[in-house]
Amino acid sequence: MKMANQNENQEEEYKAFLKNIREEKEETSNFAKLLFTIVLAVLCAVIVCVTVVENSFLMDKFNTDSSDTASSFAKFYNRKGHKNFDVPFSPRRQNILLLGVDSNGSSTDIWNGTRSDTIIIVNIDPKTHSINAISIPRDSKVYLPDNKGIQKINSAHALGGIDLVKKTLKETFGIKIDKYIIVHDEAVEKIVDALGGIPIYVEKPMRYHDYAGKLHIDLNKGNTVLNGKQAVGYLRYRKDGLGDIGRTQRQQWFMRSLFEKLHSPQVITKIPEVLNICNTYIKTDMSFYELSQYAAFARSVDENKIEIATLPGAPNQRGYISYWILDPQKTQEVINRMIYREKPKLDGTKFKAGIMYSPRKDAEAQAMKEKLNELGFEVNMLKITHLSHTRFVANKNDVTVDFLNWLQKKMPELNNMQFIYDPTETFSVGSDFTIILADE
What we know:
Largest sheet: 11 strands, mixed
Shape: globular
Radius of gyration: 22 Å
Number of helices: 13
Helix content: 25-40%
CATH class of the largest domain: Alpha Beta
Strand order of the largest sheet: 11-6-1-2-3-12-18-17-19-15-16
Number of domains: 2
C-alpha cells in the first residue's frame, strides 16, 4: 500500500511538473501559419529528394559504401583508433540549416515574407559518421540583427530572408551555417502522399477542428498509416499540455518513421513525382553534385548514431504574445555538445538509471530493471498512465550516444531505440538517463 501511494504521489508530481512547462496560447485565424512545424518531415523530404536524384542519375558515378560497468564503459568510450569512413566531401564537420516555411498566400512568389516555423541545424561529422540535430523552437525570443529588434526567431526569414536567419544564428548562438535547405509547408502533404503514406504509432486520440484555419485533425490511438493531410494534422497537433515541446517530440518520432520508409524498395517507383515536388517546393544553395554527396552520406548513417535535442527553455506569456525563453546555460551546453561535439573524458562515475513505463509494460520494465541492477546501476522506476513512444533520454551531459551503444551491447533490447538529449530533465525520475517504455 505504501509503495502504491508513493507511485501515485510521484505521478502527480510528474504531472504537476509538466503543467509548469505548458504553453497555453490563444488560437487565431492564422492558426495554420502559426502552428505549422515540420522538423522531421523537412529532413526526410530533403533525404527523399537527394536520394532519388542519386538513385536516378548519379549512382554509377558517385557510388560510396556506406566486469565493473562504469570502468568498462570508460575504456570503451575513451578508446582510440575509431574507424575512418570514406566520404565524398570535406572531412570537417558541417552545419546544414533546414527551414520549414509557411504559406504567404501568394501564388507568384511562395518564398517571400514567409516565417520559418521549423528551424533545425543538422551537424554532420564525416570522421565519426554521425549526425546531430538541434531543433530551435520557433517562438524563441531573440534579438534580430540589422535593427529588426526583439522578435520570435521564426520572424527572421519573413523580415530578411535566409541571410537574416543565418546572421541571427551566428550572432545569437555563434553557429556558422555552411549550407541551407528550405522546404515549403505544402511539400509535406504532397511528399507523404507520393510515398504512399507513413506508418506511425499515434500515441493518443487527436481531435481538433479549426474551420477558419482549414485544419481538421481526427486521429485514433494506435498504429496507422498516415496520408498527407493526416500527417500534417499529426505534426501540427498541440493540445496535449506540452505545446510546442510535445509537437517537437512528435516531429522527431515522425522523422524516424519517414527515415525507415525511405529504405523501402517501393520508393524508387516514386522518383518522377517526388522530383517534381522537390523542384517546386524545395529551395537550396547546394549544387546538384553536393546534394548527391549528402544523400550518399545520409543513407549510410547508422540510426544509432543520430542524436537529437531541442534548445531548452520555458514558455512565457507577455500580453497576447507567447515566447519561448531560452535557458542560457543549458542552451550553451546543448550547442557545445551537438555542434562542437564536446565530450567529457569519463572517470568511471556510475550513472543513475531511470525507467518510465506505461502500465502494460510493467513486466518488461521489471525485467529491464533487473538487468540494469546486474550491471551495477541504481534504478528509479515510475509508472505513468499515458506515455508516448519508446525512447532513450539522456538527462546528463555525460550520457552520450557512445554510452548507449555500449549499453546496447549488454542489453540488445535497447537496439534501435531513439536517442534524445534533454538537459531540462522533462522526462527524468531523478536519473542521469531514462528509458521510456510506451505502449506502442
